[in-house]
Amino acid sequence: MSDLEKDALSTVEAYHNAWTSGDVDRAMTYVSADVTCSAPDENVTTKGDWHEYLASFVPMLTGAPEHTRMTDRGRVALWYFPQTEVTTTTLASELFTVRDGKIVEIRLAFDRLGYIPGDQQPS
């Protein structure tokens, strides 16, 4: 693994460990002020939006075991299971681009229906 990949992975790990342990403010210290965000919620596009998005989800989080990760130069992909009272098996994936020790792009993908209780699922 190259130094660039090690640095990117270290940044993403620190970010991920911070928010999954409930410290969204610390997680945001690893995110660039001009980060580009892409999430299932199309209204989440800026660092402030991302902070709010994570802060609203973290209280529901009961765990986040990692499935796997990959690095490619300054990009890191994480797959993990963000667990809540509703689900322990819904997979999430995030692709990060890191430059100069800061996350400059976040692309999040997951099945939103996985977080809706079974009796409230659309038919």
UniProtKB/TrEMBL annotation:
Gene3D superfamilies linked: 3.10.450.50
InterPro entries associated with the record: NTF2-like_dom_sf (IPR032710), SnoaL-like (IPR037401)
Top-rank taxon: Bacteria
Domain SnoaL-like: 12-106
Protein name as annotated: SnoaL-like domain-containing protein
Lineage: Bacteria, Bacillati, Actinomycetota, Actinomycetes, Micrococcales
